Amino acid sequence: MVSNVSTNTFAPSLWKRYQRRLAPPLFVAPALIMFGIFVIWPVLESLWLSLHDWDGIGENRFVGLDNYVELFRDDPVFWTALKNNIYWLVAFLFAPAFGLALALFLNQAGLAMRFVKSLYFMPFVISQVVVGLMFGWFFNAEFGLLNHILTALDLPKIALLEDERFSTFAIIAAGLWPQVAYCMILYLTGLTAINPELIEAARMEGVKGWKLLWHIVLPQLLPATSIAVIVSVVGALRSFDLVSVMTGGGPYDSSTVLAYYMYEQTFGALRIGYGAAIATCLFLLMDVCVVIYLLRSLPSNKR
């Protein structure tokens, strides 16, 4: 009887003694397990697969770094896709600025303004495939609305999606439309959390206009800015659906991006290992961009 009592009281006393140490790992463990299964393990599997030559059916043959050597030395399409991804990245970095400008303009009360806000947010709600189809029709060389407008202005027609020089930038314009809308919503949410007392105090001190925006408003919008920049970077580098719908990477692979080229090599050419190598390069590029931004945005780096 004494042993049972001591055993029953030992476990509760042990839990109470180490509760503060054990509780956080126990709460975090499910999330870490899910993250490891669905993120870390696929990344490691993709890295390992990029070192092999495999068509998805036959023998999986280890080739070491041959896929990467071919990628960087003998594949001009890869460099075209990488260059286009840089174009996407640079253009999408303007999305937070445009979104902030729209948010400042729309940050007003009233039923009519709510309707206007919903119109501006609608592009983000629409599927990317639908956006691609809409802009594909808009830029169409034969019946597109753009050429109808140019004809009405007595200007020559232009085939943006069929021209190697302009196809990438036409797709980027289509991608910016919903991205700016998403950044706008982030900033509208951030503007609702701004401390009005700071605004009033700054105005009483004679601060207004650009100084008020730069020194009072923007510092309070830093969390929204961080999310907007990171989401824009990731959205630019993972661009796929608009390229697939609007040009299919053409003409002559001039508008292809890394994600679409990975898809072509993996499921079109059945080069699973080569596609995994492209995915690895895209993953590293995305990580580098996000890490650089996070390091530059740390408080210790602003002193």
TrEMBL record:
Organism listed in the record: Rhizobium lusitanum
Entry-linked Pfam families: BPD_transp_1
UniProt KW keywords: Cell membrane, Membrane, Transmembrane, Transmembrane helix, Transport
Family the UniProt entry places it in: Belongs to the binding-protein-dependent transport system permease family.
Residues annotated as domain ABC transmembrane type-1: 81-295
Domain of life: Bacteria
Broad class of where this protein is predominantly found: membrane
Topology relative to the membrane: Multi-pass membrane protein
GO biological process terms held by the UniProt record: transmembrane transport
One Gene Ontology cellular component annotation held by this UniProt entry: plasma membrane
Parts of the chain that traverse the membrane: 22-44, 86-106, 118-139, 169-191, 212-237, 272-295
Subcellular location per the Swiss-Prot or TrEMBL entry: Cell membrane
InterPro entries to which the protein is assigned, alphabetical: ABC_transporter_permease, MetI-like, MetI-like_sf
Protein's UniProt name: Carbohydrate ABC transporter membrane protein 1, CUT1 family
